[in-house]
Amino acid sequence: MFESKAGVLLIAGIGFFGFAFLSNAVVPVLMYRDLPEKTIEESVNPKILYQFKELSRRFPVPFAEHFGIPAADDTEAWKAKCAEALRLGRQVYIGEGCWHCHSQFIRPVSNESKRWGAVSRSEEYQNELQRPVLFGTRRVGPDLVHEGGRRSSDWHAVHFFHPTWVSPDSPMPAYRWLFDGGPDRPNRRGLALITFIQWLGSWHESYPYYEELDILRAQEY
Known about the structure:
Helix content is 49%, strand content 0%. The chain is an all-alpha fold. The protein folds into 2 domains: 1-34; 38-220, Cytochrome c-like domain (Cytochrome Bc1 Complex, Chain D, domain 2). The model is unreliable at 215-221 (pLDDT under 50).
């Protein structure tokens, strides 16, 4: 049997399967088994915290209604509110089926890094907000693992309310139930989803960070 062409192919197939299992399953487990998994609270970094505060400035009335407005210098209160929004935002993202059309895994093939940023790394998924990992099933829309910071929260609000207003060829349906009126009135679930989208990729140095705008804003008053 092993001298025949079919036998050689069988052995080769088993060998390649074993190598793939070893390199893609066993080795990563051994490499990252001692790497602690971050909680949602630990995943609130300065960049997403800035975006969350900016969300409160862009939508002050619905934000105050659904999340409240902590004191400007109460960083811990802001972090707690942001973690609350991230937890709900992920649930909305899953519940609305966003992961069916938008993957969260940039592969090292087909020049994906030119379109969506650096190839995904295992450590990016070592946190509570990535359990289970939302790799997705297809790409009707772009990969979103590094989407945060690329567009304003205003853009995302309009996109969820009426996608073709900002992306004329978009096949995405409108999610009007995430709003209490027009795109300027996102409800609690809408605000949370925007927060989650803006969090994606906030762990990268390449994430657009607008802290300097806070300085400029302070100089205006």
